[in-house]
Amino acid sequence: MSTYHPLTVNEAITYAQTLSGYFDNAATLQCSEIGDGNLNLVFHITDPVNHKSIIIKQALPYAKVVGESWPLSLDRARIEREALIKQHQLCPDLVPEVYAYDESMAITVMEDLSDHVIMRKGLLEGNEYPLFTEHIGRFLANTLFYTSDLNMNPQQKKQQVKIFTNPDLCKITEDLIFEDPYQLSDNNNYADSIADEAFALREDQALHLEVALLRQKFLSQTQALLHGDLHTGSIFVTQESTKVIDPEFAYYGPMGFDIGAIIANLLLNYTAQPGWIKDEVALQEKQSSLLLMVEKTWNSFESHFRTLWNKDVQDVMAKTPGYQDIYVAQILKDTVGFAGCKIIRRIVGLSHVVDIDNISNDTARETAQRKALSIGKQLVLSNRNINSIQDLILIAKSTSQVTTEGVTHEFK
Q: Contact, 336 vs 295, CB < 8 A?
C-alpha cells in the first residue's frame, strides 16, 4: 500500500494480515471502524479465536468535522507516532505501545485498549477512578520535565522542537481556542439561547487582553513537548489503569497548556452535573469529588515534577535557590489561564463536550453552559493573580449560580 488512500474495512483487514508477529496466517480477522474523532479513521482488528487484537489508526488529509475544504498535512501521523513512542518511553504504563507504522499511508498500529473506557464516558456514567489523579499527574510531570531544558541538553531540545513542529494542528488550536470565540466566526457553534454570552465574549476587552497574553505563550514558548489535546476524551481508564492516547496535536509549547486542558474538562463535567443528577445530596457529593480531582491532579503533577527536578535537573542555573518555586508558580498561573480558554471554547466554539451538550433538559443545559462560561472567564481574567490551586477551586465554587429565567444573568 504505497499510494495513500483512506482504508476500507476490508483493506484494514488485509493490511493487518501483512503485519508479521501479530496474527496467525490462518486466522480469520474481524474489523470494525470505531473512529468517532474529527481527523482520523480508526479500525479495531480482532482475532476472536486466539483473543488477539490491535488498533490501526490512519490520518485523513482533511478535518472530518468540516470536510475536504479543510485540508491537513498527513505529517501529523508521524508527529503523533513519535509523540506516542516518546511518551511511552517516559511512562510505559500510561501510554499505549506502538507496534508498527506505514509512513506513506499515514498509518500507526498500536495496542488495543478495548478493556478500558473513554474517561468522558465513564465520568458521565458516574464512575470513580481513584488512581487517575496520581496517574495523570505523573504522566504530566514525566512528559513535560524530561522534554524540557530542565533535563535536556538545550541543543538537543532545539532539534526536538524542529521534529515536533506541527503547524496545521497548531493552527486549529490557535483559531478555535484563542481567536474564534472572541469574534464573529463561521467556526463558532452555540445556541441562540446563549447568544448574549457570545456577544459579551466579543465585547470584553479585559478578557481579550488576557487571552492575547496566553495566546502569545502558546505561539512562542517552546517549554516542553505537549500532548496538545489532553482532554477526557483522549484518556482511557479502568479502576486500576490510565492510558493517554491521541497526541496528534503534539508540539513544543507552554507546560500549563496540557495541565489546563485536563483541568478544564474536569470542570466542564463539574458544571454539567446538575443536568444529570437530581438528588441534591448526591449532586453535592459528585461535584465535591470532581473539584477534589482537580486539586489532586495539580498536586500530583507538582509533587512529581519537583521530585524529578530535584533528582534529574541538568540545567546548572535551574539549581539556583528559589528558581524552582518561581518556575512552578508560573506553570500554575498558565494552567489556570489555559483552562479558562479551553472551557470557553467548548461552549461557544466549533467542538463541544457531550457532558453538557447531551443534557436533555433545555433549561439545565443552558444553565450549565452559562455556569461554564462564567468559570472560564474568571479563570482567564484571574490567571496572573493565582497563587495556589485553592484559588482555582474557590473560583469554581464561588462563581455565582446562574439562572435561565428572564433576561438578566448575573456573574461574579
A: no
The reply to whether the predicted model has a pTM over 0.90 is yes
The fold for domain 9-110 equals Phosphorylase Kinase; domain 1 (3.30.200)
Residue-wise pLDDT for 49-76, tens only, equals: 999 999 999 999 987 666 677 788 999 9
Per-domain boundaries in the chain: 9-110, 117-398
Interacting residues of 410 by C-beta distance below 8 A, sequence separation 6+: 400, 402
Q: Which fold has domain 117-398?
A: Aminoglycoside 3'-phosphotransferase; Chain: A, domain 2 (3.90.1200)
Amino acid, single-letter form, for residue 326 = I
What are the residues whose beta carbons fall under 8 Å from the beta carbon of 87, sequence distance 6 or more? 94, 95, 139, 143, 227, 244, 247
